[in-house]
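Re: export button greyed out
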Amino acid sequence: MESGILLQLNNISVVYSDVIQVLKGVSLSVEENRIVSLLGSNGAGKTTTLKAISGLLKTENGKVTDGDIVYRESSIQNSPPETITRLGIIQVLEGRQPFKYLTIEENLRVGTATRWGKPYKKDMELIYDYFPPLKERRKTLAGYCSGGELQMLVMGRALMAHPKLLLLDEPSLGLAPLVVKEIFAIIERINREQGTTIILVEQNAGMALQIAHYGYIMENGRIVMEGSSADLKENPDIKEFYLGMGASGDAKSYKDVKSYKRRKRWL
Amino acid sequence: MRKLRFHPCGNFNERYEQELTIFETDFGRASLVVGLVILFAVIPYASGPYLLYVLNMVAITAIAAIGLNILIGFTGLLSLGHGAFFGVGAYAAAILATDAGFPFLLAVPSAGLITAMVGTLFGLPSWRLKGLYLTIATLAGQFIIEYLLVHWEGLTKGTMGIVLPGISIFGMALDSDRSFFYIAYICLIVMTLLAVNLMRTSYGRAFIAIRDNDRAAEGMGIPILSYKLLSFAISSFYAGVAGALWAYYMISITTEPFNLGLSVEYIAMVIIGGLGSIVGSIYGALFIVGLNEGLRWLTGILMSVDMLSSMGLSMAPLREIAFGAAIVLFILLEPRGLAEVWRIIRSNFRLWPFSY
Amino acid sequence: MEFFIQLLVNGLSIGFLYGLAAMGFVMIFKASSVLNFAHGELMALGAFVFLVLISWAGLPVYLAFPLALIGCFILGFVVERLFLRPLIGEPLIYVIMLTVGLASIFKGIMLFIWGGNLYTFPDFLPAGLAIHWGSVNIPPVYVVSIAIGLIFLMLFGLFFKYSSQGIYMRSVADNQPAALSLGVHVRKVFALSWAIAALVAGMSGIVLGTINGINVHDLSSIGLKVFPVVILGGLDSIGGAVIGGIIIGLLETFTGGYLSTSLRDVVPYMALVFILMVKPYGLFGLVEIERV
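Workaround output, generated via the alternate export path:
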């Protein structure tokens, strides 16, 4: 696979409301055409990292105070989201944020905002090809669709913008395991067929590592571990804390819960 | 003796009572006592009749503004009918005092109760309406009440207005500005304490829960309709009491002042003072009344300059512009209002010279 | 019977005017969920700009009308830029209060310049537009207002339903963070919606001014009458604005004609409360979709 560096975060710090420091020097790099997953517990700063890249920090009174974000050799930290999206970086927000009062089709059309005035009919067909359920419900208001349909909708909406880099924030949130499997299969397919680079933030570490090429583990606003997915999957710490398996690799059961907790080695 | 508590440099509360106290420190409590002494012993004797008049107006307005803050700032229901409720209170007091011969001490609370009932009635749309739709329904309430005040002549004497008897408590005639000052400020203090304490009870917490997320509040078992109505009732009770005081103070009342402009002025006070801050409403009232009087003074000066008065400059446009500019500037520069400004000033003193 | 028909015609025409005035209001609401209390003042400003252009600068109508509209468009743009942009992301009540403040400032400025007097436009509509139908007369102004109302209704309907810009506007009103994440230029959308709204407001101000004469107080109080109109129709429905306008117009003229003139001004509000109790989101408003 062709591998040039598409995006690089160099030691960035993010501060909300001038006082709350969330990211304390995060560095990561994303190669072109790859799926990179970003794992970590709640509050580790994964979403903040994505927002720092997409420029959405601004609306939440957050700022990149240190370090720089380089996308294709140009610095984009603290640019407004309008500029960043037009460079081809699209974020899919956490928790499925549809436009409730717009129909599915209108929702998809909003995705064309970055290239207003260009034809979009063909893209629409492509999206319906990826997500067949959407086609059946194209005239329904998004507010009345199910969680799985909405996740497909928001991903499809982002694809309408022809992203070079897609930031997916917890696509599996609150979905049935079967639907999650389906969604992840589609993510992989998008990466394969469209050549879209994807940063995937997930709680479901097992699924994420299955489709990702590379992974970063975040904790307390820092990157604490990185490696190829295969390596990470074999790491005993990851197994214990993220994959829910005993160190030996079998599924953990309550029967053999140890009385002491395994110490995280990176701390 | 327990230790006097000054400014803690962090949150060291160990019991819920500490969390819930009104004053964190003994210093705060002491300064309140000193403030009250100055308010009642010094100010009425140190200020002239005009200043007393302004201060009395501040007290009356502040009571109504606190009521509106309970509705907007704590329960999250934006009402555009507060001015009309104020009018209902004024008329209720006037009618009770003249036709029914109620004494002052009875007329004011009764006027408050009547207004509370009217307020609940006009709060009924909150049964089905939410957000901006409810706001517009209260706007309708404003116009309907205004219409009734003017056209229900059998009760309100229409545009003729009503003249009230002077205030007397237990046969003591209290009709000077100074004696009214005591009445108004005792009312204000009682009403403020009531409001502050109300917000520390389960009722107050229910209001705040409804403001923050009414669906979640409902899920927690708060009957939201009755609490919304209660909030309307309490808020209009405050408006009613303030209106009644105002009616007694003005002696003769007409339907004119209770228009939409007054409602908007109250909202402005609540916002300028600080949404969800009881004390802030008092600052807001002080600010708006001060602004009105200041502008009147300014136009007085401008009018005395011959050239300007011959140009036909009148007060109205100037007042409109200044009023609008005050609102706009506050919202743009310090949306959390005077209460926040005051907090910042205070903490600057407290933390000086290490402001972080 | 003749009286009835004349009332009907009057009610319809006034209703169309209200509807027209309400459209600009709905425009702002649709893009940013803001109730614009300065709408009446924007209407009055439009009328005064037109007045200045046509009678004091002496421009012909075909020049003055578009110029006045362009002026309003720019004004809307500037207002958004100066006052509303800093508030993006703040709670709605602040934004609403800001429009109240703006209303006050505009009104003050207009009173300052033009005073509270009543002005009239020179007669500029050709009398041939009037419709005589038996004993019923429809003056040319009404004909023009109905025509303008219909044209704009169609334009806006198409704009919001089919054009990309219209869909972006609705998306911003619906979910601002999501719109931002997709690269919708939210600030541009707001500016555009305020500019268009000011344009529509100015236009309805001009039409209303032609009928009743222009007076700061009158026009700004019509701005308040817009509230029952839009709420009746549902805050976010352009078609609803027109139908709400017609209902209110008819109600007003009929109570004025048959009951009493003083009741005229409150009847819309009473109707409003009743209709809202039955249909909480107005006749055509979007029912709020609440998902927890």
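Chain C has a mean pLDDT of 83. The button fix ships in the next patch.
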